[in-house]
Amino acid sequence: MRPVSLGVGLPLEGPVEELVETAREAEALGCSFLWANDDRLQKDLFGVLAAIALGTERVRLGPGVTNPYSRHPALIAAAIATLDELSEGRAVLGLGAGGTNHRALGVERIAPVATLRDAIRVIRALLRGETVTVEGAVVVSRDAVLDFEPCRSEVPIYVGARGPRMLELAGEVADAVIVGNLATVDSWRYARDRVRAGAARAGRDPRDVPLIAWFYCSIADDSSAAKDAIRPMVATSLVTSRPILADLGLVMPERFAQTMSALDWSLSSAAVREAGAMLPAECLEWFGLAGTPEECLSRLTQLVEEFSEISQVAIVPAPPVGCRAIDVVRRFLTEVAPAHAIAGSSSQVES
Questions:
Q1: What is the Cα–Cα distance from 231 to 275, expressed in whole angstroms?
Q2: Fewer CB within 10 A of the terminal residue: the chain, N end or C end?
Q3: Residue 335: which of 349, 315, 321, 350 has the closest Cα?
Q4: Phi then psi for 19, rounded to 5 degrees?
Q5: What structural domains and CATH numbers belong to the chain?
Q6: What is the mean pLDDT of the chain?
């Protein structure tokens, strides 16, 4: 059994130079994966990833995650192949069907499972040098072919999922599954079982489908300050999880629902900040890892020891007031992750 690998998902906020510096420090502290979040209308995903690729040496990197509604799968294929070339074969592709910018782009999220399946088909075929025609409900591609030869014909595709049908699709077709923002034992049991069901349907051994535990994370000596920092992120996850809350064994708090309804269920930064302030403290543990280093270590160890399928733990830093993202990353990689590894928790590390 090998140790769990570590990843960081960077919100694309602040100067690009600072994002590159955060990536460099994360790499130096033992991080194996660097993911860039494709949220709202933040800085361009692949532009920032290109800068990080040129500023790092060994960390694997890619979108965490992008989607085939706001980016055409053929353009995703071209972009990930370009990133793979710039990084000398270090690219990985995180792909999902969600998106916090759909309203701003006038995008309607229809037929998500079929759309993601079509997108994966297009991307893999194009990377192999094939000519692709697809006539899906969302993904339409006619005689598409890349005008260059990728340096690798197989870039790993990690599917980000939380809903039951999407988790099952991931178990069927993904190289690995990013289990998005679930942080309780019960919700992880649900996610694992759905991935297993999809793998079984495709005749795959579930052990060949690594799971990545993806957490919003804030670490501070003041536990309350750390928990407050993840409120907007937890609010976003609650809104996007409305159809599956019963599957997760969760109930949306009434005051939060009333606030979001008054805000027309917007996922704007201002809306989720306002609604997040309404969340009871116990709800913050549903979708995030926040508190003192000791508290975070205890919860993380419980999950990784309970679920041997977890091969990577990736955090999205949410800095408390007065801190920066790099401060959270540094504390996680130096105060939480090493102690967790020493405690003996380990699992398969994805290739």
A1: 8
A2: C
A3: 315
A4: -65, -40
A5: 5-342 (3.20.20.30)
A6: 92
